[in-house]
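To the wet lab folks,

You asked to see what we're planning to order before we commit. Fair enough. Below is the target structure as tokens, and below that is the sequence we designed to fit it. If anything looks off to you, flag it before the synthesis order goes out.
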């Protein structure tokens, strides 16, 4: 699987985990140079608190386009630190 935004591969792995239709990419599969910390968080009743990252590629920023669970609840431990995408990021 690849995650692509602005014509750039930002993550690539054959070992994603699919939950609720979203592919979660392992931490070692992302190209960290394209990720920037965000202050945004959100809450899922069964996964816990999600943190977000902005994507910066070719001089453009996709705000909060990536999320992950640094300390998920027990039922979601398998995706701890894994990254998922939205806001125009193609995953295929």
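Sequence we intend to order:
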């Amino acid at each position: 699987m690849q995650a692509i935004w602005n014509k750039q591969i930002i993550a690539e792995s054959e070992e994603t985990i699919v939950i609720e239709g979203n592919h979660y990419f392992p931490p070692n599969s992302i190209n960290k140079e394209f990720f920037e910390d965000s202050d945004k968080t959100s809450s899922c009743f069964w996964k816990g608190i999600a943190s977000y990252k902005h994507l910066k590629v070719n001089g453009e920023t996709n705000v909060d386009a990536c999320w992950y669970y640094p300390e998920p609840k027990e039922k979601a431990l398998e995706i701890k630190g894994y990254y998922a995408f939205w806001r125009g990021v193609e995953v295929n």
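Structural context that might help your review: The domain at 2-91 is CATH 2.170.150.40 (Metal Binding Protein, Guanine Nucleotide Exchange Factor; Chain A). The mean pLDDT is 98.

Thanks,
Computational group
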